[in-house]
Design a protein that fits this description.
31% of the residues lie in helices and 25% in strands. With 409 residues, the protein is of the alpha/beta class. The longest helix is centred in the middle third of the chain and has 18 residues.
């Protein structure tokens, strides 16, 4: 595509449809979008065909949605491209560490090759931003980190990305703080951690060291926290204290955060206020068979929540297909988000909060000046796209078609 062109016959959401004050549907409008240098430069009604000589791409009334954000995936762990294998049973997480350390180096494909296979799947699903955790540990050094960097570099101009330097086997337990520092110096934009109490055996020291590395390297934080109950909640509270002390507001995320499902009523309000005020976000993969953070409660309290895929066919899980829209649909189904308005709102958990309509039913996206990063869906509205996990024939990143295409040109 040229740097300036028209996307014609694009279906855009214009507002909710009400009956007796209740949202019963979504109004849409057929529009033409002028794309210039990767941004939306003009939006006009489809009643008028542009009379200039610019190239025109007929979208054929596909619904346009803001492209998706995959906020938690492990590109270095996947065994896509290898022969099928189920997960080997283990008695502890520490046994899982050892299995993975043996399996990954034994594969016939490279980390980069497997990562690129997964990136393609994520793109097809509509994700044009990827946050990937990459294991940093003594036995591997930064080998996998550099291969993931190379894989993502091959997709420059097709997506944006960020890497979390992730001490999967423990920041303290594996004595890899210096390696994590080195990863940050070499381009990792986030510092990770995992279960500071149960894996590292010292919650305070582990959290302190993670924050120190982040502040030294001007990096954000994304902590894996599986610990439930009082231990998990204590970990979140201590991380929040360190966040405030370091001035790291808006730069910290907690992935999984199962303990938030164990909050009692008064504690829940206090915790949500703390997370909201400090800008600590919560990322959930919506696992089946485990309690998950109270997403709707947290969202209503102003906490930023994201849905992500996490493990996709690796030593930890034989499941996962990289379909982030499907994962958001799972969240909606599990949490009873079945109305038009709540389904539409659910989209925001995979777009960084961007939805075509705001909570008042007013058109919020796209606006002139927005990036032309768009998922084109076979749906009548975003609520249907979430509920029915609609097909996505085309995906665009900053004006460039990065997956699929349009049948009319």
């Amino acid at each position: 595509m040229s740097s300036s062109y028209w996307l014609t016959n694009v279906c855009l959401e214009k507002g909710f449809r009400y009956e007796n004050g209740v949202v019963i549907g979504t109004e849409t409008e057929n529009c033409h979008l002028l794309v210039e240098n990767g941004k939306i430069a003009k939006i006009i009604s489809a009643d008028t065909l542009p009379d200039d000589q610019l190239q025109k791409k007929d979208v054929d009334n596909l619904l346009a949605l803001p492209s998706f954000i995959e906020k938690h995936v492990h590109l270095d762990k996947t065994i896509l491209g290898e022969k099928w294998r189920a997960v080997t049973p283990v008695a502890s997480i520490f046994e899982r560490f050892e299995i993975e350390k043996r399996v990954l180096p034994s594969l016939s494909t490279t980390t980069k090759e497997r990562a690129k296979a997964l990136i393609e799947i994520l793109l097809q699903a509509g994700s044009t931003h990827i946050r990937t955790h990459v294991d940093i540990y003594q036995e591997a050094g930064l080998t996998n980190f550099f291969e993931i960097q190379e894989a993502l570099a091959d997709y420059e101009g097709k997506l944006s990305s960020e890497i979390v330097a992730f001490p999967q086997h423990g920041l303290l337990r594996n004595n890899c703080a210096d390696l994590v520092r080195e990863a940050v110096r070499n381009g990792a934009s986030l510092v990770g951690g995992v279960d500071p109490a149960n894996v590292d055996g010292n919650m305070e020291k582990s959290l302190q060291q993670m924050m120190e590395i982040a502040v030294e390297g001007n990096a954000d934080i994304d902590l894996h926290l599986h610990d439930p109950g009082k231990l998990g909640l204590a970990t979140i509270k201590r991380l929040a204290q360190l966040t405030e002390e370091a001035g790291w507001q808006g730069r910290v995320a907690v992935s999984h955060a199962f303990a938030l499902a164990d909050m009692i009523e008064g504690e829940a309000d206090e915790m949500a206020q703390m997370l909201s005020e400090l800008g600590i976000s919560i990322i959930t993969s919506v696992p089946i068979g485990r309690t998950i953070p109270p997403v709707t409660f947290l969202h209503n309290k102003g906490v930023q929540v994201a849905v992500a895929c996490d493990n996709i066919f690796d030593s930890w899980s034989p499941f996962g297909n990289g379909n982030i829209l499907e994962r958001a649909s799972r969240l909606a189904e599990l949490t009873g988000r079945s109305t038009e308005q709540k389904l539409a709102e659910t989209l925001g958990f995979i777009t960084g909060g961007i939805t075509p309509l705001n909570k008042n039913g007013q058109q919020a996206w796209p606006k002139v000046g927005d990036d032309a990063s768009i998922v084109f869906t076979e749906a009548s509205c975003s609520a249907e796209a979430i509920a029915r996990r609609s097909n996505r024939p085309a995906v665009m990143y900053r004006g460039k078609l990065v997956s699929g295409g349009f049948t009319k040109g």
